[in-house]
């Protein structure tokens, strides 16, 4: 990024959070690998990850107060407190010393990204408390397993032959989706939420959620197909057969308003 442009981004971002301090060189390195169109939100996230107390207080006001209202849909005040405590731990501390907030890329609004993380925390906690079937299905791999059930002999055979390649391609396709859209897909396919419920959680409309789910599913399948075509030594007809089996598992026929 050009020095002049970097300086302009820094001054604009700093002006949005005058009480928050991030060294110019730290912010320049941070924004260089992210979407600079939301420089002000990246600035706040960067400051939080670096432990700035004023930034964390601003983050609470700007994001967590809004997210809390969404989490209330899942349970009691005590449950909400548990979720928010776990959310703060993940965002600011993370696993192995890497805060989850460091993963915010600026591709979407920060508050929407945080809401997606909070929703997964709430669902994982609820399932851990009430339904053990979901405790091991927290990530994108659970979507893959949903698509690869062994009760179909043909699919089971394909799975045994190409499991590693398909897992890698599917994971790469999912990773390219915005975080909120990945959460939408998980909520619908894994957690059993309907489009109306998802819309309520994210302050959207049911038709909009339905369109996003369809588009997200199609995009993941298209990318998976392209990656497998480049990596597997199979005919196009064989590959198409594999993809049809997978598509039938991730049907969106139920996405009707």
The low-confidence runs, each spanning 5 or more residues with pLDDT under 50, are 131-138, 252-257
Residues in helices, as a percent range: over 70%
Major sheet characteristics:
none
Which sequence of SSEs, written as H and E, runs from N to C? HHHHHHHHHHHH
So what's the overall shape?
globular
How large, in whole angstroms, is the Cα Rg? Answer: 20 Å
What is the residue-averaged pLDDT? 80
Question: Based on DSSP secondary structure assignment, what is the total number of beta strands?
Answer: 0
Count of helices? Answer: 12
Number of domains: 2
Strand composition percent: under 5%
**Beginning-to-end CA distance, first to last residue:** 45 Å
Structure characterization notes:
- By secondary structure, this protein is mostly helical.
- It has two domains: 3-133, no CATH class; 136-249, Winged helix-like DNA-binding domain superfamily/Winged helix DNA-binding domain (Arc Repressor Mutant, subunit A, Orthogonal Bundle), CATH 1.10.10.10.
- The protein has helices at 3-16, 24-32, 39-49, 53-71, 77-92, 110-130, 140-147, 153-175, 179-189, 195-202, 206-231, 236-249.
- Residues 131-138 and 252-257 have low confidence and may be disordered.
